[in-house]
Amino acid sequence: MTDIIIQGFYGRMGRALQEKIAARGDCRVVAGIDKAPGAAGAVPVYAALSELPENCRGVIIDFTGAAGAVEAARYAAGHGLPCVICSTGLSKEDEAVLEAASEKIPLFRSANMSLGVNVLIELCRRAVTLFGGEFDIEIVEKHHHSKLDAPSGTALMIADAINAQAGGQYTYIYDRHDVRQPRGAQELGISAVRGGGIVGDHDVLFCGPEEVVTLSHRAQSRGVFADGAVQAALFLDGQAPGYYTMSDLLRGKLACV
Questions:
Q1: 20 is catalytic
Q2: How deeply is 11 buried, as exposed, middle or buried, from its count of CB atoms within 10 A (0-12, 13-18, 19+)?
Q3: What are phi and psi of 194, to 5 degrees?
Q4: What pLDDT, in 10s, does the model give residues 124-149?
Q5: pLDDT tens-digit readout, 112-123
Q6: pLDDT, tens digit (0-9, with 9 covering 90-100), for 204-253
Q7: What is the pLDDT of residues 33-53, one digit of tens each?
């Protein structure tokens, strides 16, 4: 049985996590962290990680934001707890804190916890190799009107995977409204759409002279991100200190096939 501590307990993702965990038999929530503390049934909820009892152990899952992610990583490293960081919008300085923490604890990091999105990324890597740089690549991401960062962390994660596969040849282009010249072969366009309650859509277009191949992912509910986070927590439980990603989780799944 894997014990889990949810930071952002009463948020939308915190509630989705609670629902996913309640439906499973291999993990349980032992504590929550939220600005509005108090008991939620049998689960104690604290205002900060620093208020957790010393004997409270478990995998921390953070879905709060950049500041919360840094706090979770530092607390986890100081108390020897595994940590799953799901928040987006982290700066290079924030990421450095996570990397430092991973030297002491097993830390799992992904800008998108959906298994489907990460399979999409693997397919994009293969497409880059197969097309051999002969196709222009554009990424279009769509999210709800309350999302703060643009482009999304997932879009950047896809772009980074593509660029790494292509040997770093691409320059990211976020805005073309004042550009009056043909598209460059080494450009990788990333466009953001914000509106309504779109959970998260990502399209990757490989545009050739006479054909277009589109790889797409549509998140129909936040449950897909919660499910991925729970699977990451289960994967991380018992791992050695290190920096883990969805690629590690997917490799583990493939090894079981």
A1: no
A2: middle
A3: -125, 125
A4: 999 999 998 899 999 999 999 999 88
A5: 888 899 899 999
A6: 999 999 999 999 999 888 888 899 999 999 999 989 999 999 888 887 66
A7: 998 766 667 889 999 999 999
Residue in 20, 143, 202, 217 annotated catalytic: 143
Distance between CA 81 and CA 248 in Å, rounded? 19
Q: Which of 147, 177, 217, 253 is catalytic?
A: 147
Q: Do 247 and 118 contact (CB within 8 A), yes or no? A: yes
Three-class SS of residue 250?
A: helix
Degrees, nearest 5: CA angle 159-163-167? 175
Q: Which residues contact 25 (CB under 8 A, 6 or more apart)?
A: none
* pLDDT for residue 257: 45
Tell whether omega for the bond before 37 is within 30 degrees of 0, i.e. cis. no
* Residue type present at position 134: E
- The answer to whether residue 143 is catalytic is yes
* Closest to 66 measured CA to CA, from 148, 4, 154, 174: 148
